[in-house]
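Allow me, if you will, to draw on your knowledge of protein folds for a short while. I have a record of one protein: its chain in single-letter code and its fold written as C-alpha cells. I should value your view on which stretches of the chain appear to form regular backbone elements. Thank you for your consideration; the sequence and its C-alpha cells are set out here:
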Amino acid sequence: MQKKRIPLLLFLSCFLSTQIIAQEITDEWSGMYRLEPYGKVSDSIAPKQFYNIQKIVLEHDNSTSLYHLSIPDQWIIKNMANNDDQKVLRAFSFSEKKNDYEEFGWTTLYKKGAIKCVDGGNLFICKTKPKTKISFGNDQFISNSGTFGILLHYGIFELYKSSSSK
C-alpha cells in the first residue's frame, strides 16, 4: 500500500511546485527592489533602500464570480530594514466607471500595454519598458529601470528589481 502512495505523493509535490513557480512567473510585481531617488543614484547601498513586494492572496483569486473579479489585485510592500514600514498596494482600476490612469494622462499608454500601476494611497508605482519617457503633469522624465514611483511630498523614485527575484 505504501509503495502506491510514493508515486502519488511525488506527482502531487511536482504538480504543486510547478503551480507555485507558474504563479511567481505571472506576478510581475513580486520581488526584491532597491529604491533610488530619481536622478540621485547612490554609490552606497543602505538596507533601508530595499523593499520587498509580495502579492496578497485573496479569497477571490480562485473565484469566477463577477463580484470577486471586480476586486483589484493587491500586494504588500515592506521595507527590509523596518518591518513597520509597509503598505498595501492595489492595482489601478481601468473600466468605463473608473479609470485611475486618466488623472495622469496615461490612458493611451495603458491601452497600448505600455504601463501598469499600483496605488498605495500616498504613493503609486508603475511599470513601463526601461528608458520610457513619461509625462507627469508639466514634467517629463525617463524611467531608466522601467519601474518608477511617485511619493506624495517626496517626488519621483526608481525601483531596481533584484536579478534573483525576476
About this structure: Residues 29-165 form one domain.
